[in-house]
Design brief:
Helix content: 25-40%
Number of strands: 16
Largest sheet: 7 strands, mixed
Family: Belongs to the zinc-containing alcohol dehydrogenase family. Quinone oxidoreductase subfamily.
Organism: Dromaius novaehollandiae (Emu)
CATH superfamily of the largest domain: Medium-chain alcohol dehydrogenases, catalytic domain
Pfam family, one: ADH_N
Domain Enoyl reductase (ER): 78-401
GO molecular function: 15-oxoprostaglandin 13-reductase [NAD(P)+] activity; zinc ion binding
Order of helices and strands: HEHEEHEEEEEHEHEHEHEHEHEHEHE
Number of domains: 2
């Protein structure tokens, strides 16, 4: 049966609510969305193809037999050295409960370098797939998966292996969408990280002073907006006046350009009592500055340290020997946050974020590289440029790479 015929059959099913369905929480071992950032399972080979032939027919559809994908072939914090583009990888086949997604947009994350360097799971050896999140269209699916999805449906997912033209995604981990828009991609990791970390660790309330470092980045933009929704006073650091303008447009009360201003002096002058919450992702000197800026009973939420990711050691020196005394003096605290440890909160967070975006209450800024020297990030080849662009601090919002497909679809 060709895809066209099967598509007609499957599309006759009753439509489902696009943004969420109640379903059983998958275990970590079962591989998961944000719950699968640490080395998700690779698409399993199908031994019994008797049912799958009804859903996947390379000869009768527009799906090719091979595809491009990025593969880590050497552990290194240098992304260009670690990752190779393979042009003739077999297109994976979906199992009974799986979707085959043709990726339209893939997200770039600072932690892509940590993953290619093998810092998350030392047991994983090259070669292995890379890329954490994608948005695309279902082009094939297994029998069980057809109970909830149809060919042609737009979905988002978080699963290792998104830097590919096609990715197999367990249906239970997919999020159905009204359309394949890059804005939805911003919420899957970046938005969920900001939402859950601030809700669980920030203890935000009206009038609190919140400092967001790298505030114009993929995650920072959401930390600013969510803190404002909690009626906090928000200060954001950034690296250009253009970024400062963007931050003001999404509600940031006070922007500090760390390229032209002394952040520590500005904070000491304008906030002599300190700030109540710091949302920190930069590391190094910014981390030290943030600790010094905490108010009595203040809390620093650590979600990353991007300045150390490209270093062989992974960390830049901090004044750790003074840290206990500084925290004790202020009854202050530092809380680390890693999305994988908050699986149980992910569904509700994503549901709320999607609702806010659909209602026009949340800006999801996407940077497709239009202002980069070589232009828009298009195709898997441009993932390398996109990673470089992020580490040069050029992006405003979430960096997204578009994957165009020249093959005419029969859907």
């Amino acid at each position: 049966m060709s895809f066209s015929a099967k598509s007609v059959l499957l599309s006759s099913r009753a439509p489902r609510c696009w943004w969420w369905r109640q379903r059983q929480e998958p275990s970590c071992a079962a591989a998961g969305p944000a719950w699968c950032l640490l080395g998700g399972s690779r698409p399993r080979p199908i031994l019994d193809m008797s049912y799958s032939r009804h859903f996947l027919d390379f000869q009768g559809s527009s799906i090719p037999s091979s595809m491009k994908k990025l593969v880590v072939t050497k552990l290194s914090q240098n992304f260009r050295e670690a990752v190779n583009l393979r042009r003739d990888s077999p297109v994976p086949l979906p199992g009974d409960g799986d979707l085959l997604v043709r990726n339209r947009f893939v997200g770039i994350n600072a932690s892509d370098i940590n993953y290619s360097a093998g810092r998350y799971d030392t047991s994983v050896k090259p070669p292995f797939d890379i890329g954490f999140e994608g948005v695309g269209d279902v082009v094939a699916l297994g029998l069980s998966a057809s109970a909830d999805y149809t060919v042609g449906q737009a979905v988002a997912y978080v699963k290792v292996g998104s830097f590919a033209e096609y990715t197999v995604v367990p249906a239970k981990q997919a999020v159905p969408l009204p359309s394949a828009k890059p804005e939805f991609l911003t919420l899957m990791v970046s938005g969920a990280t900001a939402y859950i970390s601030l809700k669980e660790l920030g203890e935000l309330s009206e009038g609190k002073k919140v400092l967001v470092t790298a505030a114009a980045g993929g995650t920072g933009q959401f930390a600013v907006q969510l803190a404002k929704k909690a009626k906090c006073h928000v200060i954001g650091t950034c690296s250009s006046d253009e970024k400062g303008g963007f931050l003001k447009s999404i509600g940031c009360d006070h922007t500090i350009n760390h390229k032209t201003e002394n952040v520590e002096s500005v904070l000491r002058r304008d906030y002599p009592e300190g700030v109540d919450v710091v949302y920190e992702s930069v590391g190094g000197k910014m981390f030290d500055l943030a600790v010094n800026s905490l108010a009595t009973k203040g809390c620093l939420i650590l979600i990353g340290f991007i300045t150390g990711y490209q270093n062989p050691t992974g960390l830049q020196p901090i004044k750790a020997e003074l840290l206990p005394a500084k925290l004790l003096k202020k009854s202050a605290s530092i809380r680390g946050f890693f999305l994988n440890h908050y699986f149980a909160k992910y569904k509700m967070a994503l549901k709320h974020l999607l609702e806010m975006y659909e209602q026009g209450e949340l800006v999801c800024e996407v940077d497709l590289g239009d202002m980069s020297p070589e232009g828009k990030f298009t195709g898997l080849e441009s993932v390398f440029r996109a990673v470089d662009y992020m580490y040069m601090g050029k992006n405003i919002g979430k960096i997204v790479v578009e994957l165009p497909h020249s093959v005419n679809s029969k859907l």
